[in-house]
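sry for the spam today, last one i promise. struct tokens for design, 202 residues
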């Protein structure tokens, strides 16, 4: 166990051990807060972590790198702690202003983790998971300099986000339709990663 009394996040023993070894107790506290604040976001983050880890295995990553990649997936939406729960739980489509407010979670998460995460790849995955290789993403609108961790987490995030039942959507999208949408939007993703993800992971 992590050694933090009363903390049972359900994130997997390897990730608990990773955070314990790196003495990142604040990260545990943030995850505990997220689980209590928005179980939907927490469960999505766990799923993104697992999909990202599967990609890391398929790409031949070392065990240590896979744990770090899963940590990046787990923390990618931690900035949603700063978004009002009324907005996160809103039923129905979001307005333009509401979407813009939710988009602030990226930089908020990056800022929250800066004092307690020293791994640049994890930090940048949190900051860049909504960027796209064609420059249409946010918050920085970059097309170059997107890390491999971020390229992997973005695929897992998009796929789980579409196929998971969400508060603001009446129903989830089928896996087949999600794959078609991702293939249509392929300009935003790393081509080889997208191919492997769609063929071998989902």
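last one done:
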């Amino acid at each position: 166990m992590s050694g933090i009394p009363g903390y049972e996040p359900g994130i997997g023993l390897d990730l608990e051990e990773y955070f314990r070894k790196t003495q990142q107790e604040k990260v545990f506290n943030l995850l505990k807060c997220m689980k209590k604040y928005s179980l939907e976001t927490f469960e999505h983050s766990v799923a993104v972590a697992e999909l990202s880890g599967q990609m890391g295995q398929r790409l031949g990553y070392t065990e240590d790198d896979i744990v770090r990649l899963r940590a990046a997936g787990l923390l990618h939406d931690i900035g949603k702690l700063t978004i009002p729960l009324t907005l996160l739980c809103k039923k129905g489509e979001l307005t333009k202003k509401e979407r813009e407010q939710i988009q602030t979670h990226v930089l908020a998460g990056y800022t929250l983790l800066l004092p307690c995460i020293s791994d640049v790849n994890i930090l940048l995955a949190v900051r860049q998971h909504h960027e796209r290789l064609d420059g249409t993403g946010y918050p920085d609108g970059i097309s170059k300099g997107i890390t491999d961790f971020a390229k992997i987490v973005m695929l897992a995030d998009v796929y789980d986000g579409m196929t998971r039942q969400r508060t603001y959507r009446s129903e989830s999208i089928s896996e087949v339709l999600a794959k078609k949408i991702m293939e249509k939007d392929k300009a935003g993703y790393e081509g080889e990663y997208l191919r492997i993800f769609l063929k071998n992971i989902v």
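The chain has one domain: 13-201. ok im logging off now
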